[in-house]
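Example record

The entry below shows one chain as it appears in the dataset: sequence first, then structure tokens.
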Amino acid sequence: MDKNPMAQTAELTLPTLRLDQHPTIPSLYQTYNDGFKQLAPKALQLQRAKDLALALLQHYYPKSQGFTVEPTEPLNIARHGWNFWLAPHDYNPQDKKSKLPTYHSPFEDKQHHIRPEHITSFRVVSEQEFYNDSDDATANPEEHDDLNRDQVSADTGPPKQRPTTKKPVEHTYLTILLDDLSTFPRWVPDSLQQSNDRLISNPRHDILRYALGVVARIQKGYGFLLLGPRLEAYTYEWQDVAEDGRAEGARTRYATCLLEKEH
């Protein structure tokens, strides 16, 4: 599997969002956040989340710099929705020294489910030039051309320009997980979970690991989750991808909550 050559070499700086300096994001966020308190219909809240996500990504990746923000097809990894592991009411990770919870009753709720229709994603793309005659696509053909364009041989004449084609390149993803976070205090911390089938749920950042690694093939960058009223930023770094296409070697780590106070 070839890596995306784009989100690759540049040192990325985690964006800082100043709500008081943006003309529309404060009101979009306030309306969206108030909707959870007012029990707004899910369809209305989802549209508000999309409007907010679009404004946020266009703020970080402006059209004037060649970026385009667009909705994506549903991510295969979330085709059945997403489960969040609920700890018992008396469970406290700090008291248990990072031990996973155990349940005292088989009837105790063990998961919180977000339906697939309440999960949607946006991606950021830009048009970049690639060589037509090479599998090692490059977004900057001039850097990888072996010909010295400043020298012209009298025998051969000027070097031929290698043909290029513009193709879309993905830079980041933002995934919306619409939820009021009423059970959020009981979610088992992602730091205690591993991505395997033995657990009741997988860490939520696996959604971004799949989008950035398997779908976009990004090497290094950031991804975002709009989880209810929380906008979470995650760092991402490609390490290896298994033959079956799973981004097993890709690391996705929680960085910060950009909107809504920390829990």
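Notes for this example: The longest helix spans residues 42-60. The helical segments are 25-37, 42-60, 206-215.
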